[in-house]
Amino acid sequence: MLYLFCSIKFVNKTVNKIRQWTQNINFQYITTMTKHQNNKEMAILEAARNEFLEKGYDGARITSIAKSAGVTHAMLHYYFKTKEQLFTGIFDDFIHQVVGNMTELFNDSDKPFIQQVEDAVSVHFDFIKENPQIPLFVIREIATHPERIELIKDSVASTIGGFFGTVQKGIDQARINGEICDIDAINLLFDVLSLNAFTFLARPIFFAVFGRLTADDSVFIELRKQEILKTIHKRLAI
Questions:
Q1: Cα(41)–Cα(29) distance, integer angstroms
Q2: Could you report the per-residue pLDDT of 97-141, keeping only the tens digit for each?
Q3: Which residues constitute the domain of residue 38?
Q4: Of 136, 144, 164, 221, most Cβ neighbours within 10 A?
């Protein structure tokens, strides 16, 4: 009887160990597969980003994107059924990169609101500096194909809407504290967007007409950044 009891106990322990081992294997497999899928999806988005920025929506080719991403056409189709979905995917990525970083800055309650704004201006400016093709790409696609606004409207509205709310909340509190002049979030963000983006949109024309102001482009870009920061600061300061 004692032998039987010990045998049953041993079997139960063994079964539990096997079950635990199987769960660990399944978890590791799922984790590995998830990482693999995420890597594939990111590779496709990166390839699509380069293709769209270089050739525009109409010139971009799915076969070229698949080749650059190192995946088959069928694999790309698994993640993104249509060219429109790829376009929406890379646009979402642009928006989330910028808005995500700027939202964190506006949630930093340890800094005065004007400093939060200046930090956000710097982040946005630096993003465009690293990706100078993006403003032209967005303007060209929306100007030539206004219907494409429908492809990105919902995702942009949900992301930007929450961000506007965060900024407006900061503005309202800063006004109560006597830190800044009266302004609303939409006008403030339009000011930042237009000043930052136009620097890179107008630079080629400006240089062609007036010549270079500095021998090094990076010096000119940094001067523009500081000028924009001063302009925004003066607009807000009492």
A1: 18
A2: 888 888 888 988 889 999 999 999 999 999 999 999 988 888 888
A3: 2-77
A4: 221
* pTM across the whole model: 0.77
On whether the CB atoms of residues 180 and 113 are closer than 8 A, the answer is yes
In the DSSP assignment, the letter for residue 60 is: -
Question: Do 95 and 24 fall into the same domain?
Answer: no
Cα separation, 119 vs 143, in Å, equals 30
What residue ranges of the chain have pLDDT lower than 70? 1-38, 213, 215
Give yes or no for a contact between 171 and 185, defined as CB atoms under 8 angstroms apart: yes
- For 78-113, the DSSP string reads HH-SSHHHHHHHHHHHHHHHHHHHHHHHHT-TTS-H
Describe the crossing of helices 2-59 and 62-69 by its angle, rounded to 10 degrees: 130
Q: 96: domain CATH number?
A: 1.10.357.10
* One domain, residues 92 and 69: no
10 and 125 both lie in a single domain: no
| Burial of 137 (C-beta count, 10 Å sphere; 0-12/13-18/19+) | buried
User: Contact 54/61 with Cβ under 8 angstroms?
Assistant: no
86 and 173, same structural domain?
yes
Q: Residues 208, 149: one domain? A: yes
Same domain as 100, residue 36: no
Q: Please count the residues of the chain.
A: 238
Q: Maximum CA pair distance of the chain? A: 100
177 vs 160: CA distance, rounded Å: 26
